[in-house]
Design brief:
Layout: E1 3-10, H1 14-24, E2 25-26, H2 31-38, E3 48-53, E4 56-61, E5 72-79, E6 85-92, H3 95-112, H4 122-153
Helix pairs in contact: 3-4
Length: 154
């Protein structure tokens, strides 16, 4: 399962860091809000949705397109070096998307067992989904990390 673990250090004290995080995180949207947002263009409001509970949070980036491998971000923050704040982030794929990928590989590997050994297209069927998954996940993960870091630098 794609997982990305990272740390962000901020010069802000924890109370200010929490305010900065709350400014970029909105409450979970309802289904009707998600549908209506998918037809709108431009940036409207905070880039993340989720919850902050004490010094822990669970968020996802709000996107206006489909990406089943968009990371779920779990994080916590505490006093860091030099009276700043240190955020620990763990990003992982939605378990349902991972289950779909496992089913895909079970079907593919079962099919490849019946394919002639000299068939040269097997690598395409095996590696393209891996590259697509990693590209979709890590592209979103790195962008989310940058948005969080920028919010904590203000």
């Amino acid at each position: 399962m794609p997982v990305y673990v990272t740390t962000i250090e901020s010069p802000l004290p924890p109370s200010e860091a929490e305010k900065a995080l709350r400014a970029i995180i909105r409450e979970q949207r309802t289904l009707s809000e998600r549908v209506s947002d998918s037809f709108s263009w431009g940036s409207q409001g905070p880039p993340f949705e989720g919850t902050i509970d004490g010094q822990r949070f669970r968020i996802r980036r709000i996107i206006r397109y489909r990406n089943s491998f968009r990371p779920i971000i779990r994080g916590s923050y505490a006093t860091g070096p030099a009276a700043g704040t240190e955020l620990q982030l763990t990003m992982h794929v939605n378990p349902f998307a991972l289950a779909l990928l496992i089913v895909w590989y079970a079907v593919v590997l079962g099919t490849l067992a019946n394919v002639p050994a000299d068939w040269s297209g097997w690598w395409f069927i095996i590696f393209v989904p891996v590259v697509m998954t990693l590209g979709a996940f890590f592209g979103e993960a790195f962008y989310a990390r940058r948005l969080i870091r920028q919010a904590l630098e203000r």
